[in-house]
DUF3105 domain-containing protein (Streptomyces nymphaeiformis), 225 residues
Amino acid sequence: MAASRSATADRRARIEEMRRAEQARERRNRFLTIGISTVVVLGLVGFGTFVLMKKSDDQDKKDAAAKAPIAAEKTWDPKKLGRNHVQTAVKYDMKPPVGGDHNPVWMNCDGVVYDKKIADVNAVHSLEHGAVWVTYNKQASQADVKKLADKVGKTKYSLMSPMDDQAGAITLSAWGKQVTVDNADDPRVDAFFTKYVQGPQTPEPGAACTGGLDGSGQGGAGMGQ
């Protein structure tokens, strides 16, 4: 009888010991889970904060670039630039033109690189929609032409074409704005794109840059904008 009671007591003791060990494991696992979760949450919060700060910093830099003056930039009073749609030829006061009366159909300017000269009256309509127009003559090196073509090809609301009779090697034009540079690595190129692609000078922001002329003399039904 005494042996039976002793065996029962031992069994209970082992069961109690096992219960305590299981509870200890559960506590350790719980603490470990909480600790890992905390580290993950803190990591996500830290990463999120870093991303937000980087985005904010990038936006600040972009805003600063958009406000900074561009050296040797030429500006025309937008109030003196006509915006009538005409079917006749237009004589512009500057080359390339940066605004004025223009054809009702725009040149496609969704990052389009033209290998032949395009009509001023159609390109000016693209500027009205907020595009930056890059032109170059034979003074520009083939390497610079390629760099600019790559940049335009990646930038919506931009277009590029040769213009042999312009004064400078490379000219960037927007509505009422223009700058001339000697090479594609000039920092004013990036600054001009940042500032004037769909920039504050745009008379018709958000207007189409597709559906116009494609350089072959063919185009969509783009009219009246």
